[in-house]
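Worked example 3 (structure in, sequence out).
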């Protein structure tokens, strides 16, 4: 009997039905001479037709990977999830992180949320292929990419408290990316600046601030806090001007929780992060500031 030529559309259709990899689907269809039911049976016998079922299972483990350009003009954090920590530590899973970072780098400004979730896109293909290989649900839940607006620093928090250095694929459970303004080539090469970048990133990893500055806090959030504080003193009998001062004092405590520069430094709680930045700028003779940051923790993006 003559062998039937297998088309790309047939391979795609079988892949969508089974979740197996492209090459596995093509091989199965070739062996089955184009018979989809037989090809499905072949894949099931090989344990490759289970990706679709696995895709419905919870993937709350995984790692945060990172990559940045040598000049720190751009950087990317990505969260890749699986079902068990055992799989997260395998070479195959860590290579997947590298492959995902490469695709994001190649896409550049085209790497958007829609691009990430596209079922016909490169990220979905990478994940489905690894489902077949690793026998667990695999998902790339989110990524953060900064480019062209400042100096990008990164930090990966490891279980032992260490820093992953440049080993993006090793990954960790918490990843931080920080963008700084006011960084000249002369400043970026200074040891004091490298220390500042790591300290700020570790601060974000440890205390999880929500905003870079007070100006970034949404007005409705502030109004809600103020209304809560005023309600707490509704029956206090205090004059309005006294209540206003108390509210402002309570807002100071609120800022110290959610605003990076208002937080107490993890290195020296007597100093605020604003003080740490001021000290570093004095030593560097610079005007470095944090413009934005992202903190990704495994499982929070699901």
């Amino acid at each position: 009997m003559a062998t039937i030529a297998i088309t790309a559309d047939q391979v795609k259709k079988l892949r969508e039905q089974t979740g197996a990899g492209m090459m596995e689907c093509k091989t199965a269809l070739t062996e089955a001479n184009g018979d989809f039911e037989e090809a499905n049976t072949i894949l099931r016998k090989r344990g490759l037709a289970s990706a679709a079922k696995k895709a419905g299972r919870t993937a709350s483990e995984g790692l945060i990977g990172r990559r940045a350009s040598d000049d720190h003009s751009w950087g990317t954090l990505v969260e890749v999830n699986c079902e068990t920590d055992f799989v997260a530590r395998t070479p195959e899973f860590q290579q997947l992180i590298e492959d995902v970072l490469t695709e994001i780098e190649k896409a550049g400004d085209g790497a958007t949320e829609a691009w990430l979730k596209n079922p016909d896109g490169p990220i979905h293909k990478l994940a489905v292929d690894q489902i077949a290989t690793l026998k667990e649900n695999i998902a790339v839940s989110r990524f953060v990419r900064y480019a062209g607006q400042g100096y990008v620093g990164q930090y990966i928090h490891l279980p032992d408290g260490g820093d992953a250095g440049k080993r993006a694929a090793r990954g960790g459970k918490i990843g931080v990316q920080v963008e700084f303004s006011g960084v000249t080539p002369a400043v970026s090469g200074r040891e004091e600046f490298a220390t500042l970048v790591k300290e700020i990133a570790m601060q974000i990893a440890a205390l999880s601030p929500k905003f870079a500055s007070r100006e970034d806090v949404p007005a409705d959030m502030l109004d809600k806090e103020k209304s809560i504080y005023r309600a707490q003193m509704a029956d206090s009998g205090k004059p309005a001007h006294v209540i206003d001062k108390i509210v402002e004092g309570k807002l100071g405590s609120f800022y110290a929780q959610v605003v990076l520069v208002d937080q107490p430094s993890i290195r020296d709680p007597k100093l605020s992060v604003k003080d740490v930045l001021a000290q570093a700028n004095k030593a560097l003779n610079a005007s470095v500031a944090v413009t934005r940051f992202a903190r990704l923790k495994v499982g929070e993006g699901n």
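Notes: The radius of gyration is 25 Å. DSSP finds 13 helices and six strands in the chain.
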